[in-house]
Amino acid sequence: MNTTTIVIAIMVCIVYAVITLYHHYQPKMICLQCGEINRPSPEERGNIYLAIFLWICFIVPGLLYSLWSFFNKKYVCPACRSERLVPPGSPAGKRAQSTGSW
Q1: What range does the domain containing 32 cover?
Q2: How far is CA 71 from CA 13, 33, 58, in A?
Q3: How far separated are the first and last CA of the chain, in Å rounded?
């Protein structure tokens, strides 16, 4: 292995670690669907079967699709998988907590 390959591999590992830590330390949110107050769970977008097909047939599109899927996570409620999340301190979060309307 040459030096360039090692540097690129180290950079990829650092970027992966930073993104993983970012996703892990999300602030608590309130779900407007079920009322759960918890840290949102990251959920990858995309289709695993399409990713496998692209990796088998075409290396570059498979890599691009996998990177898109990894970097474009959506955050959902861990209890009901809804995307309707707001900070508890926001007007909508305070309203949901005070009225119990979710």
Answers
A1: 3-99
A2: 14, 25, 20
A3: 56
